[in-house]
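Quick start: what a row looks like.
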Amino acid sequence: MKQDCSVPWIETPLVRSTALSKAAGCNILLKLENLQPSGSFKCRGIGNFVLQKLARLRAQTGPSAATRAHFYISSGGNAGLACVHAAARLGCRATVVVPLSTSPAMVGRLREAGADDGLDEQGMRRTQVIAVETDGADSLSQAAARERLVTLPAITSLCTSLGARRVCPKALECALRSTVSTVVLSDVDALDGCRRLADEERFLVEPSCGVVAAMCYDQRLAKLVKGFGEDSVVVLVVCGGSNVSLDMLQGKIQT
């Protein structure tokens, strides 16, 4: 992995999974975003936002802008961790506003990380994208099916990291492109994906990531990927997240 000390994210490996490739019947590549400093791909987007904002502040008010800057974010975990990490790395402050449902373990991680209390657009148009959600956190899929924004009454899935009761208009716009498909699987599928990634790849991930791995089984990819075959290449974004432990995962699987 290459580390550029001027940015709050790293270049992560892209590796082929022998086990998942065999299960899916094509070449499965894992983009290991779980190795980002905050544990998820959100280091990239949020880190870049913080970086660019600080650059504008320095241009407007001078080099001491970073020490005076204070970023605020509403998050249940991974996005907040990415913001806190970026702020700490770049010499400023960050406060995370969390929902009441946030676990004490995640609140602790945010504080330990330093929180204050209180794809190229044109390239994406040529790439087939499969957006995977779980039943009970499927606001994007429902919105795409109805071609309008939908607000879920509640998030009932274990995959709380997917838990946007209502997606933003831009997300719906992207989901309606001809190159984008939406898929809804169950929490059981998500947990099975977590178990398989732990057993076969030695990665401990949240159910929100496990549901992506579940796409490799039961011919799910073959039904969705255009021109699917043994030479097809599918990239799974592996976002480990930080709201997971072995005990937590085993408890969910047993129940």
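That is the whole record. The two ends are 37 Å apart (CA to CA). The first strand starts at residue 2 and ends at 3.
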